[in-house]
Automatic annotation (TrEMBL):
Origin species: Pseudoalteromonas xiamenensis
Lineage: superkingdom: Bacteria
UniProt keyword annotations, A-Z: Hydrolase, Metal-binding, Metalloprotease, Plasmid, Protease, Signal, Zinc
GO biological process, one term: proteolysis
The protein, known as: Peptidase M35
Length: 369
């Protein structure tokens, strides 16, 4: 059973009942949000996407699935509430990853929020749909997107697209329930005895998978050591193409941030209790819960990747470790080498927070000094 939302004021209530709509002018797609509270304590966001243009629009499907992306901004009494869902490493998007909206067409999606955001505390919550991505819309003027195409010159000056709604408010009295312990655990747990030299395995990893993981971890260690060595031997004023290709123009602050990130990644590989889970059957490379260090869930693309080189097993481990809040707290702003290169040019401040940018710097293919 669903009840109407409760807010602080008539204005907030009106916003919640009517929804809040904001147009993304460059693509003429509107997004609106309504909130619903339920007697079992759940809070749902009903999101409607509307193509206001007179031509077809293609929206990246990842941003219509809460379980797969951080697509909402949620605050409680003005303080942002952390997203506790998974962060994935994917290949760059292809044609099949886009949803088509015909001219004037609308699409509605319902998202249950309390499994990914903590609504257990009383307060005034504000929710908005808020997405930033280089590949959010498929642009008809660009070449077809291909996960193996990393040098498309027409993308070199691309900007990150934004699609967001106005905020909708709801007063929550407090659920008396906490987030699932698995999503908030400080450390992963592993089956007793299913560990090799401090690296543990869950999800029924077979012996071949365990050997592949340990070999990939060794490759990741070498990549992390190489990255730390480079950053220690250079500076913001002497950064070479290896740095600027993936992180853009170098300032002292940004360079130091990248250095701190790789020190933490290297420390995680060398000193932290890593756990790898083999149960994921998705087509992606891997995912983690950022507030659940240091457990990495490996998916199908991981097993078919090379041990080193671009989008490798070793690089995937670097990517995923960088997501942990206890390590570098990176996000997935863009995927793929082409997107990462474009982001470095258009927005270096976002590039230093992008997980794939860290991976490609560490993999260093093609090799750059």
């Amino acid at each position: 059973m669903t009840t109407s939302i409760q807010t602080f004021s008539r204005t907030a209530l009106a916003m919640a009942l009517m929804g809040a709509t904001s147009a993304f002018a460059a693509n003429n797609v509107d997004v609106s949000v309504n909130l619903e509270t339920h007697t079992n304590g759940n809070v749902s966001a009903v999101v409607q996407f509307t193509n206001q243009s007179n031509h077809t629009q293609k929206l990246l499907s990842w941003y219509t699935d809460l379980e797969e992306e951080h697509i909402f901004k949620v605050t409680r009494d003005g303080e942002e509430v952390a997203f506790n869902g998974p962060h994935f490493k994917r290949p760059a998007p292809t044609e099949n990853d886009y949803i088509t909206l015909n001219a004037g067409e609308s699409m509605t999606k319902t998202f249950e929020l309390t499994g990914f955001y903590d609504f257990s505390q009383p307060g005034n919550y504000e929710v908005s749909y808020n997405v930033h991505s280089l590949n959010l819309f498929q642009q008809p003027t660009l070449m077809p997107i291909d996960s193996k195409l990393h040098t498309t010159s027409s993308r070199s000056n691309a900007n990150v697209s934004t699609l967001k709604s106005e905020s909708v408010s709801v007063w929550i009295n407090g659920m008396g329930l906490k987030m699932d312990n698995m999503r908030t655990a400080a450390k992963p747990t592993a089956a007793a005895g299913d560990c090799v030299d401090g690296t543990c395995f869950t999800g029924r990893c077979d012996n071949g998978q365990k050997n592949d993981i340990l070999s990939a971890l060794n490759a990741a260690d070498q990549m992390a050591n190489s990255s730390v060595s480079y950053l220690n031997s250079h500076s913001s004023s002497s950064a070479s193409a290896r740095y600027t290709t993936w992180f853009g123009s170098s300032s002292s602050s940004r360079y130091n941030t990248v250095s701190d990130h790789f020190d933490a990644i290297n420390d995680a590989i060398d000193n932290k209790p890593l756990t790898f889970d083999c149960s994921c059957k998705k087509s992606y490379f891997a995912y983690v819960y950022p507030n659940q260090p240091y457990k990495v869930y490996l998916c199908r693309a991981f097993w078919s990747a090379n041990e080193s080189g671009t989008d490798s097993r070793g690089g995937t481990i670097i990517h995923e470790l960088s997501h942990f809040n206890a390590v570098a707290g990176t996000d997935d702003i863009v995927y793929g080498q082409s997107g990462a290169k474009s982001l470095a040019i258009s927005n270096p401040s976002q590039a230093i927070q992008n997980a794939d940018s860290h991976e490609y710097f560490a993999e260093n293919t093609p090799y750059q000094n």
